[in-house]
């Protein structure tokens, strides 16, 4: 894939970029290594000062960078501004909380004596340059949720962003530079995917984090495993959204619309499979379909647009193939199921879609739908709902709507996902760990769990 900004609303190439040469890559790796040698000794106070400044700059830049994101990957511009605001919030959260999260830990006096020490402690030390391989769907947020904790921990970052968001990638490097971080503390690498292996195998790179597809995750994990380097992977998701009759069904249906089409439906943690108890099914179905039909598909820079184009032509083709195969196999289209007539000849738009009568024999039952397409299931009990919810190779997050505490306990116990959200849609917050199970990856981002992923957890034993 060429490194270029291609407007998803028109299909027009806006700007192209040259990939870094091997000599350029070497210079950046050398700079990262030199910078880490000194940056790792800076104080939390100094790191926090710079990260707070980055947050302030991002707030000021939000209208402009939002338009860049929208032009590069098609999300509605209002959602792009909200993404920028969330990034600034997360920077401030880590600037405030990192000293506490990474404070030395002290075993009890009894345990210290039992270990034969006069003193003992656990210290969190940075690992070094970390390679971040990031996707296009949240081009600021996916990077910042890695960068903010990594920089506060004393690591330095090397960003290999998706090739269709190069302007956003370069903005991030410039943002941290303007905030006062030392040269080489956070660098963007404009490279193709074939260059990743050589960088990851370089001795100066300590670890890697990847958010993206399962094939990309397997590749990075295999290379890092061969080099015995730490990785964190956040891969795909096909999140279940379970609705029981004791729930506020009307509210569940309203929230379901947002949960499915946020970011034009291109979100790993978006609810994708809607599993509804038969006693609430018709009420939920009717309200949900009405809400999906009412969404305004349009130009992503228009403030009134609810759903913009998919990020790429191939992404729309993949989505169409899943829908068409399901319909040919007996699925029922309750709304959507095609390209909008107003955008039939330009851009990569697709109508908000709801499919019913989906069976396990269909590809769409097992594969991730990365676009505004929902599948709807009718079940007879919570047991059956959990069975359908877990019938997926993914395990990123899950949703349950219920008024019954016993339902909640049972769902938390038996859900195969890394997150359980009750009576609300899945969302990420800096204070809560984020990550999945099964083929959705491993490791955690955000909260204290995330900042410690790229630390050398060091035991310090001091004898008498």
Topology:
Layout: E1 4-6, E2 13-16, H1 22-39, H2 44-73, H3 77-101, H4 109-114, E3 119-126, E4 129-133, H5 141-153, E5 156-160, H6 166-178, E6 186-188, H7 196-201, E7 207-211, H8 214-227, E8 230-234, E9 239-243, H9 249-261, E10 271-277, H10 278-293, H11 313-328, E11 332-335, E12 353-356, H12 363-366, E13 373-379, H13 382-389, E14 394-395, E15 398-401, H14 405-414, E16 420-422, E17 437-438, E18 441-442, H15 447-452, E19 455-462
Parallel strand pairs: 4-5, 4-7, 5-6, 7-8, 9-10, 9-15, 10-13, 12-13, 15-16
Antiparallel strand pairs: 1-2, 3-19, 8-18, 11-12, 14-17
Helix pairs in contact: 2-3, 2-5, 2-6, 3-5, 9-10
Question: What are the salient characteristics of this protein?
Answer:
464 residues, alpha/beta, 7-stranded mixed β-sheet, 6-stranded mixed β-sheet, 15 helices
What does this structure look like?
The protein has 464 residues and is an alpha/beta fold. The protein is 43% helix and 19% strand. The protein has helices spanning 22-39, 44-73, 77-101, 109-114, 141-153, 166-178, 196-201, 214-227, 249-261, 278-293, 313-328, 363-366, 382-389, 405-414, 447-452, and strands at 4-6, 13-16, 119-126, 129-133, 156-160, 186-188, 207-211, 230-234, 239-243, 271-277, 332-335, 353-356, 373-379, 394-395, 398-401, 420-422, 437-438, 441-442, 455-462. The strands form five sheets. It has a seven-stranded mixed sheet with strand order 11-12-13-10-9-15-16, with helices on both faces. A six-stranded mixed sheet has the order 6-5-4-7-8-18, sandwiched between helices. α2 runs antiparallel to α6 and α9 packs across α10. The longest helix is centred in the first third of the chain and has 30 residues, at 44-73. The protein is globular and about 70 Å long. The protein starts with a strand and ends with a strand.
């Amino acid at each position: 894939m060429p490194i270029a900004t291609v407007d998803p609303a028109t299909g027009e190439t806006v700007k192209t970029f040259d990939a870094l040469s091997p000599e350029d890559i070497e210079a950046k790796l050398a700079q990262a290594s030199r910078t880490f040698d000194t940056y790792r000794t800076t104080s939390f106070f100094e790191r926090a000062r710079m990260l707070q400044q980055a947050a302030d700059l991002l707030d000021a830049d939000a209208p402009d960078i939002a338009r860049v994101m929208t032009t590069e990957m098609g999300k509605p511009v209002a959602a792009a501004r909200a993404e920028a605001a969330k990034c600034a919030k997360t920077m401030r959260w880590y600037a405030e909380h990192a000293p506490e999260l990474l404070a030395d830990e002290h075993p009890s006096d009894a345990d210290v004596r039992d270990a034969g020490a006069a003193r003992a402690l656990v210290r969190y030390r940075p690992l070094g340059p970390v390679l971040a391989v990031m996707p296009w769907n949240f081009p600021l947020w996916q990077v910042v949720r890695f960068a903010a904790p990594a920089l506060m921990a004393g690591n330095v970052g090397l960003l290999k962003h998706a090739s269709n968001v190069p302007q956003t990638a370069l903005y991030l490097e410039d943002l941290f530079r303007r905030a006062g971080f030392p040269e080489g503390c956070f660098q963007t690498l404009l490279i193709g995917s074939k260059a990743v292996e050589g960088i990851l195998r370089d001795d100066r790179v300590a670890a890697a984090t990847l958010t993206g597809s399962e094939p990309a995750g397997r590749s990075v994990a295999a290379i890092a495993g061969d080099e015995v380097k730490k990785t964190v992977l956040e891969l795909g998701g096909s999140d279940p959204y379970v609705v029981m009759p004791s729930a506020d069904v009307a509210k569940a249906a309203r929230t379901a619309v947002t949960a499915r089409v946020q970011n034009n439906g291109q979100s790993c943690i978006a609810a994708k499979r809607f599993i509804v108890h038969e006693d609430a099914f018709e009420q939920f179905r009717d309200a949900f379909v009405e809400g999906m039909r009412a969404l305004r598909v349009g130009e992503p820079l228009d403030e009134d647009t609810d759903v913009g184009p998919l990020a790429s032509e191939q992404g729309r083709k993949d989505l169409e193939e899943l829908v068409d195969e399901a319909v040919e196999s007996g699925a029922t289209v309750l709304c959507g199921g095609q390209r909008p007539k107003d955008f039939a000849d330009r851009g990569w738009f697709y109508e908000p879609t709801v499919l019913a009568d989906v069976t396990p024999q269909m590809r769409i039952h097992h594969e991730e739908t990365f676009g505004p397409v929902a599948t709807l299931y009718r079940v007879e009990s919570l047991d059956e709902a959990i069975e359908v919810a877990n019938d997926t190779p993914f395990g990123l997050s899950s949703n349950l709507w219920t008024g019954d505490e016993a339902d909640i306990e049972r769902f938390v116990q038996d859900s195969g996902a890394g997150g359980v959200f009750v009576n609300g849609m899945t969302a990420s917050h800096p204070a809560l760990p984020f990550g999945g199970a099964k083929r959705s990856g491993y490791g955690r981002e955000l909260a204290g769990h995330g900042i410690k992923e790229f630390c050398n957890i060091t035991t310090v034993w001091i004898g008498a």
